[in-house]
């Protein structure tokens, strides 16, 4: 076997402590981590706390409750600010189409999602309402936007110019946009997701989170804006208490892929769900227009509409933690924390830290794979046998898995060879390498690569949206190891129809491991000179939820590779 010399990029390493002293770093309004946003199991007549399920108390315990972060909740209507749950919330602006009556746009749906995002009431005179009041990020600034002018009928009409006006107003000005609504369309080429992609590509400081829809359990049921590549599409977990499986109603992939250059649609090839979160039997605030004096009304229900603000709230906590770190350490680490808040980094960390449900799969299979390595001015192309290959990356149902706020926080606070994130740029036709160091056999590697699909809005009217400079880079993610002086290809995520690559596997042997990001082609459009991406990875002992993966990776005990010529 020929030995290849690999040039490895040097990792920047820093680790922030989880000690009690660390909590004193953050300047936060102390909010006691009480019960909030309850999950109710009617069969057992018992309740759970959503923050305990997704791990948000990890942020709360160090004083991070959303301070400094800005959330925009964009729906058909807007939340009702008089509800009990908002009495101590940090309410921002309300932005609606020009000439619309705000009071006529108060919505129970928008009120419920806003409650999950940032509800906060410190008055405990009404015990039941108090216990339900706290949202995921209660100290965040909560603004609202409505895309409709009238929500009184069963069918609501939306003008495309209004849609663009409201979203463009909040993109760039908000840390997170949550949208738990969407036109009932599964078309891969839809104007709503196209506009969102273009706005997100331009404003990389704003994370867009969208509910996937409630049209499951069939395939290709992810709807409209959730098909935007540059957003985070959220599925709903069911089975109150454990939330270990997808809810039956949750929309899912595979979805279709549309090429705007060739005008062709490829059926059933794209994993359009990014992550899943609790979305069944959840409590939330209710607005009742017929009882405007009832300020403590709640309902128990579910849907991806509720799962999305759970994710958005955690993203707000991630942003809040980064702002606090920047305030304390910014001078020492340059633009590190600004990069940490980039939408690609946030998405990569969120997906990489997700837990894997027992039936999660991205259909990794042993296969041969051909790849090219550049060295010393020339290229070597070789085909490797017995490579773990996924052309899917994410699970069609769960995405990267179930939301884990605790894991996301650990990613934020660590930059080491065993847990790392970066915002980098790779030149076209080349690659970048990351050294994981020497890793013991039996540990699990999770690696996630995220980049944006490009588009620039030239004009929007009620009839159409013109989006120029469309291109979609096709990056790849490879895992290598060094054995007996030779470099061996172990695993590859190579999805032709998505902008997320994701690997999850058990390492079979001790050795030095390397990750490589490649940029050798395009999904469509003219290749740019370089592509900016985020990468996140972790190497950890076997998690309890990974036992189901033992079968396929046992094959890797026979680990030697032969290079096929």
Write the layout of secondary structure elements.
Blueprint: E1 14-15, H1 20-23, E2 38-41, E3 46-49, H2 50-54, H3 57-60, E4 70-75, E5 90-95, H4 108-118, H5 127-133, E6 141-146, H6 160-170, E7 176-179, H7 191-202, E8 207-211, E9 232-238, E10 245-246, E11 255-259, E12 264-270, E13 275-278, E14 282-285, E15 298-301, H8 304-333, H9 336-340, H10 343-352, E16 365-375, E17 378-390, H11 405-413, E18 414-415, E19 419-427, E20 430-439, E21 444-451, E22 454-460, E23 465-483, E24 486-493, E25 500-506, E26 511-524, E27 530-540, H12 550-554, E28 563-564
Parallel strand pairs: 4-6, 4-7, 5-6, 7-8, 8-9, 9-13, 17-24
Antiparallel strand pairs: 1-18, 2-3, 9-10, 11-12, 14-15, 16-17, 17-28, 19-27, 20-26, 21-25, 21-27, 22-23, 23-24, 23-26
Helix pairs in contact: 4-8, 6-7, 8-11
CATH architecture name of the largest domain: 3-Layer(aba) Sandwich
Distance between the termini: 11 Å
What is the total domain count?
2
Helix residue percentage: 10-25%
CATH homologous superfamily designation of the largest domain:
Peptidase S8/S53 domain
Largest sheet, in brief, is: 8 strands, mixed
Question: How many distinct helices?
Answer: 12
CATH T-level fold name of the largest domain: Rossmann fold
**CATH classification class of the largest domain:** Alpha Beta
Q: Give the rounded overall mean pLDDT.
A: 86
**Low-pLDDT windows of residues:** 1-36, 544-565
Provide the gyration radius in Å.
Answer: 23 Å
Proportion in β-strands: 25-35%
Q: Quaternary status of these chains?
A: single chain
| Total number of strands | 28
Q: In terms of structural class, how would the helical and strand content be classed?
A: alpha/beta
Tell me, briefly, the overall form.
globular
């Amino acid at each position: 076997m020929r030995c290849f010399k690999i040039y490895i990029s040097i990792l920047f390493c820093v680790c922030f402590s989880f000690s009690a002293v660390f909590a004193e770093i953050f300047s936060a309004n102390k909010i006691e981590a009480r019960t909030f946003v309850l999950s109710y199991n009617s069969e057992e007549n018992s309740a759970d706390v959503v923050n305990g399920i997704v791990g948000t108390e990890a942020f709360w315990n160090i004083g991070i409750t959303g301070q400094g972060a800005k959330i925009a909740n964009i729906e058909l209507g807007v939340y009702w600010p008089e509800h009990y749950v908002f009495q101590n919330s940090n309410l921002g602006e309300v932005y609606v189409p020009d000439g619309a009556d705000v009071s006529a746009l108060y919505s129970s749906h928008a009120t419920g999602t806003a409650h999950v995002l940032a509800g906060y009431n410190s008055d405990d005179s009404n015990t039941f309402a108090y216990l339900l009041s706290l949202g995921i990020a209660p100290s965040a600034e909560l603004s609202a936007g409505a895309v409709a002018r009238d929500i009184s009928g069963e069918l609501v009409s939306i003008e495309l110019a209004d849609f663009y006006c409201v979203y463009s107003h909040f993109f760039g000005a908000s840390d997170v946009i949550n949208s738990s609504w969407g036109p009932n369309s599964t078309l891969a080429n839809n104007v709503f997701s196209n506009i969102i992609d273009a706005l997100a590509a331009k404003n990389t400081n704003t994370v867009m989170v969208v509910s996937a829809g409630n049209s499951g359990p069939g395939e290709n049921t992810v709807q409209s804006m959730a098909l935007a590549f540059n957003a985070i599409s959220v599925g709903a977990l069911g089975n109150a208490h454990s939330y270990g499986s997808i809810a039956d109603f949750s929309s899912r992939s595979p979805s279709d892929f549309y090429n705007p250059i060739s005008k062709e649609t490829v059926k059933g090839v794209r994993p359009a769900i990014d992550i899943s979160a609790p979305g069944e039997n959840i409590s939330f605030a209710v607005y009742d227009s017929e009882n405007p004096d009832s300020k403590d009304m709640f309902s128990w229900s579910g849907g991806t509409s509720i799962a999305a603000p759970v994710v958005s709230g955690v993203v707000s906590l991630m942003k809040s933690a980064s702002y606090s770190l920047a305030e304390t350490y910014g001078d020492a680490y340059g633009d590190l924390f600004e990069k940490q808040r980039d939408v690609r980094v946030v998405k990569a960390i969120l997906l990489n830290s997700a837990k894997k449900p027992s039936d999660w799969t991205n259909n990794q299979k042993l296969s041969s794979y051909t790849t090219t390595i550049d060295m010393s001015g020339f290229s070597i192309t070789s085909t490797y046998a017995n490579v773990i290959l996924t052309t899917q990356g994410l699970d069609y149902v769960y995405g990267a898995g179930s939301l884990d706020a605790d894991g996301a926080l650990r990613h934020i606070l660590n930059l080491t060879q065993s847990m790392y994130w970066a915002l980098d740029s790779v030149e076209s036709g080349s690659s970048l390498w990351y050294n994981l160091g020497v890793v013991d056999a039996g540990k699990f590697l999770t690696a996630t690569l995220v980049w944006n699909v490009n588009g620039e809005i030239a004009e929007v009217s009620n009839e159409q949206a013109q989006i120029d400079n469309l291109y979609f880079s096709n990056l790849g993610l490879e895992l290598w190891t060094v054995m007996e002086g030779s470099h061996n290809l172990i695993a590859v995520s190579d999805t032709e129809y998505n902008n997320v690559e994701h690997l999850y596997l058990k390492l079979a042997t001790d050795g030095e491991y390397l990750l490589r990001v490649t940029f050798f082609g395009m999904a469509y459009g003219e290749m740019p000179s370089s592509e900016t991406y985020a990468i996140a990875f972790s190497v950890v002992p076997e998690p309890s939820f990974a036992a189901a993966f033992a079968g396929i990776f046992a094959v890797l005990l026979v680990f030697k590779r032969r290079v096929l010529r």
